[in-house]
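Posted in: Protein Modeling Q&A

I'm a second-year student putting together a small comparison for a lab meeting, and my supervisor asked me to include a predicted structure for Allophanate hydrolase subunit 1. I've never done this before, so apologies if this is the wrong subforum. The sequence is pasted below exactly as I got it from our records. If anyone can share the structure token output, I'd also love a short note on what stands out.
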Amino acid sequence: MSQTPFAASGTGPNYRPVGGHAVLVEFGATIDKRIHDRVVKLDAALKAAPFQGFVEAVPAYASILVCFDPLVADHRTTEAAIAERLGAEVPATIGAMREVEVCYDPDLAPDLAAVAEASGLSPEDVISAHLSGDYSVFLYGFAPGYAYLAGVPEAIQQPRKPAPIRGIAAGSVLIAGPQCLVSTLTMPTGWWIIGRSPTKIFDAASDDRPFLFDVGDAVRFRRISRAEFDARCPA
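Accepted answer (user: helix_wrangler)
Welcome! Here is the predicted structure, written out as tokens:
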């Protein structure tokens, strides 16, 4: 497999074999919209013109896993097919705009005050900054419906906590570094909990569309009152 250096402006990616059935195509090592745009473009090109033996592609922040049928293709032919599609012209796709409601009341946002103190802001300033973020869905991972959003404003970015906290409620609005997500299950997290949302992000009962978001969608948060939250999430 070839190994080419990462580049900021569009040269070849790195190719890494994964088991006997996939190639990991790496465009960089940071959360960067320009890098992710290349991931999305290759994903679209593979969907528009799948090569013989293509099974699926799984996009991430700065890479995409291309899976193939090892009875039909191998790492070498898959890399060649990917290289052919890197420069392909594919129709521009514009993701949908999705709205997520969020309540920032203190008992639903146990880390809001800590984020404010660490950022040198008031809690209301943190809320305003969070609402102003330019969010887009970069990938799914970790747990069902966990859509990782990039776009948290730099003013409120915080590193992950030293240790995770157990039993964090589903619907929690979490931030860590430039990332944001809305949890879908009660699980531990080391991210900062700054609100809670009644918006249904993951519908396990749906066979047609279990996830609210698609990779590439834009997301905006809309503040709601506690009364609105309670009406949507009765005890």
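A couple of things worth pointing out for your meeting: Residues 137 and 149 are 5 Å apart (CA to CA). Residues 1-10 have pLDDT under 50 and may be disordered.
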